[in-house]
């Protein structure tokens, strides 16, 4: 029967996978074993039994990690066995074979990552490089390639932010350049009381009330003077909602202003600016979801492009996002 003193040894074995526990204590494995084996009252047989148990535990753990493809963890336990028996040719050979296998698998994953990079599939390349480092953390080529990939991602993110800031500044300047709706034409002699009351509502900036009153008037088609008042009210509300960020309501009023009678250039420019604002808002929202829900991000970007289909920057970024989504689906399928 094996002596009772060996029971705490599994705790030492559990501390080995990262070897951090031994580093913290400042003890080498040989010191720990030696201090345990030379405890008072132990016979030589007890010491042999303890060491044999310790070796058996590490050997079983090595086999377990190898079966799961955890080469680095298996390597740590083999190093522990080598410290116990520094002259064992079997352990040295096994260590060499495992190191070679680890290096080969890591290099193969590195090559696959480099192939994905040449195809501009950054996400898939990152997955392969991370897997390469997981197999062999000492693979310097994989580490350097991953570092360069992260640098490119940061650089691209900074460029995107600069473009976003520039676009927001352009939109802001454009919104300031859009003239406010006005009714400078004097009332013609003999104008009816309704038109006069409508213009008074406009002057009082009661645009919604003005639109409601005109809409409830059963006298259609409206006279051209009333149509102009109605168009100006819709245009003014569109500008107000655009500046407050309510793009859906701004778009509705801009459409109404543009399609009342014959749209002026000012009406069509306002409609275009609002559609661009909506597109930018949806696109930024989609970019924010790229790292968490790429499918939702692509849907938002596609919707954004429908509001401003001529935006080349959005077209290019959307194609990249679609490639990332497709690559991610391929990796999941594997």
What this model shows, in words?
This protein is mostly helical. It folds into 2 domains: 1-87, no CATH class; 177-333, no CATH class. Helices cover 76% and strands 0% of the residues. The chain is built from 15 helices and no strands. It has helices at 9-14, 20-25, 29-37, 44-67, 71-84, 89-118, 122-135, 140-177, 193-203, 207-215, 224-243, 247-258, 265-288, 294-307, 312-333. Helix 9 packs parallel to helix 11. The two termini are 50 Å apart. This is Tetratricopeptide repeat protein. InterPro entries: TPR-like_helical_dom_sf (IPR011990). It comes from Oleiphilus messinensis.
Give a nutshell description of this structure.
The chain has helices spanning 9-14, 20-25, 29-37, 44-67, 71-84, 89-118, 122-135, 140-177, 193-203, 207-215, 224-243, 247-258, 265-288, 294-307, 312-333.
């Amino acid at each position: 029967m094996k002596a009772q003193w060996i029971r705490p040894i599994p705790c030492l074995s559990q501390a080995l996978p990262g070897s951090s526990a031994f580093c913290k204590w400042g003890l080498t494995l040989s010191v720990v074993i030696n201090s345990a084996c030379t405890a008072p009252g132990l016979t030589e047989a007890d010491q042999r039994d303890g060491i044999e148990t310790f070796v058996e535990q590490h050997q079983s753990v090595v086999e377990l990690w190898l079966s799961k493809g955890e080469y680095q963890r298996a390597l740590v336990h083999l190093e522990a066995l080598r410290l116990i028996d520094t002259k064992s040719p079997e352990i040295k050979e096994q260590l060499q074979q495992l190191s070679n296998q680890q290096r080969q698998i890591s290099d193969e994953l590195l090559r696959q990552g480099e192939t994905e990079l040449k195809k501009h599939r950054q996400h898939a390349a990152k997955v392969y490089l991370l897997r390469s480092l997981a197999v062999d953390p000492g693979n310097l080529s994989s580490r350097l390639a991953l570092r360069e990939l992260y640098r490119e991602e940061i650089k691209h993110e900074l460029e995107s932010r600069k473009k976003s800031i520039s676009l927001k500044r352009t939109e802001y300047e454009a919104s300031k350049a859009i003239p406010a709706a006005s009714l400078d034409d004097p009332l013609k002699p003999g104008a009816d009381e309704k038109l006069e009351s409508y213009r008074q509502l406009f002057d009082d900036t009661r645009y919604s009330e003005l639109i409601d009153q005109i809409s409830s008037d059963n006298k259609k088609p409206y006279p051209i003077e009333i149509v102009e008042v109605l168009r100006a009210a819709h245009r003014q509300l569109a500008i107000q909602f655009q500046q407050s960020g309510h793009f859906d309501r701004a778009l509705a009023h801009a459409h109404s202003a543009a399609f009342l009678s014959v749209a002026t250039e000012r009406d069509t420019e306002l409609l275009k600016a609002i559609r661009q604002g909506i597109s930018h808002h949806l696109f930024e929202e989609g970019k924010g979801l790229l790292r968490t829900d790429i499918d939702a991000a692509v849907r938002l970007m596609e919707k954004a492009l429908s509001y401003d289909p001529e935006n080349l920057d959005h077209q290019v970024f959307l194609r990249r996002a679609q490639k990332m989504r497709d690559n991610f689906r391929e990796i999941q399928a594997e």
